[in-house]
Amino acid sequence: MPPLDPSRPAAPAAPAAPAARLARRVLAIMMLICIAGCGKPLPALPNDAYVWQRTWTPTVAAAIDESRGLVASWHVLAAELDARGRWVDMTPDASVLAAAHVPVVAVVRFDGALGDLDDAASIAHIATLLGTWQREGIAVAGIEIDYDCATARLAGYRRFLGALRERLATMSPPTRLSITALPTWMDSPALDDLLATSDEAVLQVHAVMNPVRGLFDEARAQTWMHAFARRTHHPWRVALPTYGTRVTWGPDGRVTGIESERPTLQSDDLAHELVAKPDEIGAFAARIGRDRPAGLAGIVWFRLPTDDDERAWSLVTWRAVLTHAPLRAALSVRTRVAAGSAAADLVLVNDGTADASLPSRIRLDRTCVAADGINGYSLDRDAQNLVLRRTQDGLLRAGRQRTIGWIRCTQPTVTSRVEP
Please, which domain of life does this record's source organism belong to (predicted)? Predict the structure, then answer.
């Protein structure tokens, strides 16, 4: 090989290979896209909400009105088919929904304990219901089927959804079909066909585990959401909780009751309160808004809080979570003495603007010689003095108070302290 001659002009460079030119073009396009949009934050996830009340009281109407501008669509419980195959239809207030000026999704719930569905009868009932709502002036944007069936029944459920979708397509106007989905379905090969049959799905990540594991687990919810995103090719939403539930166990350790939507029933069984804490749920909602799985189109909150719904958050707390406003609780303990009584009631008060978790301990004044706890508290003693210890988790709504016990002390004025 002859030695190189520095005085000799360099040979022209060979033309770039087509693959190399294509790679440079793709890189340039990606850089332009990033310059144009990488610095922009994602738009906020829309907030929908379930109206799950079976009776439309004035407090339901007030809650919908007070949520104006916060909710993109209402998912309204329309009918239930119970485990015995009996239908119960709801009668929402059409004027309230019309005044909200947002889309309405009619939710039809099938009891998960149902056997095989009667496809023709169920579809006919849904079509009749939809027609009734439309005649009453409710503009139904979609039908949502809520059926927590066993995984083994997914193939039959898919056939029902296919037939229902064909019927909805013939109606005027055509109506979209959505379903709720469970994490337990994720291991089933039938899930792909099921999801393909609907236009949208709502993944439920609360109250889907054994009650001993709680109402909501952030790490599991995150895992389920990413797994679900890989299974569906349609837009989907996630349902997050705004409520608490009371679970009772019998002497044999089996669950004997779960009360989430109705007043607490008295029982001799062991009971435990499961709570969706607003600060934790709010932080989770903000996190998935920033780092959202593929296809996630919004959040559906279960359920719309009302002033007389003792198991849901307060409206003021729910508004704060939806608007990402600071949550500020202010718990204190006050005494209330009845005339002619040597004892005084001990009252826990929340003067803040957000619902607060019940404190684990209330340390009583040293001058207290007798006491007892109620409503989730029991009497205990440590090395210093008497203490009321929390026996049931729960929330105290903003602006509310709860009597948690009584005390008898040697001094007329005493001070008890809230401890985390």
Answer: Bacteria
Which residues have CB under 8 Å from 116's CB, separation 6+?
153, 156
**Contacts (Cβ under 8 Å, ≥6 apart) of 388:** 346, 361, 362, 364, 371, 373, 377, 378, 379, 380, 404, 405
Strands (E), 260-385: 270-275, 296-302, 331-337, 344-350, 356-357, 361-363, 368-373, 377-381
Virtual torsion, Cα 221, 222, 226, 227, nearest 10 deg:
-40
What is the residue type of 316?
Answer: V
Backbone φ and ψ for 5, nearest 5 degrees, come out as -110, 110
Q: How far is CA 412 from the centre of its chain?
A: 46
Burial (CB count <10 Å: 0-12, 13-18, 19+), residue 229: middle
Distance CA 114, CA 126 (A): 17
Cα 355 → chain centroid: 16
> Which residues are registered as beta bridge partners of 387?
363, 380
Identify whether the C-beta of residue 331 lies closer than 8 Å to the C-beta of residue 401: no
Mean pLDDT (whole number) for 296-316: 95
Q: What percent of the chain has pLDDT over 90?
A: 73
Q: How far apart are CA 277 and CA 242, in angstroms?
A: 8
CA distance 195 to 228: 10
Q: Say if residues 71 and 320 touch (Cβ distance below 8 Å).
A: no
3-state helix, strand, coil in the chain (%, to 5): 30, 30, 40
pLDDT given for residue 86 in this prediction: 96
User: Which residues sit opposite 173 in a β-bridge?
Assistant: none
Contact 80, 87 (CB under 8 A): yes
For residue 58, say if its preceding peptide bond is cis, omega within 30 degrees of 0.
no
Q: Global pTM? A: 0.86
DSSP-based three-state secondary structure for 353: coil
The domains of the chain, with CATH numbers, are: 47-322 (3.20.20.80), 331-419 (2.60.40)
Q: Tell me, what's the pLDDT at 93?
A: 97
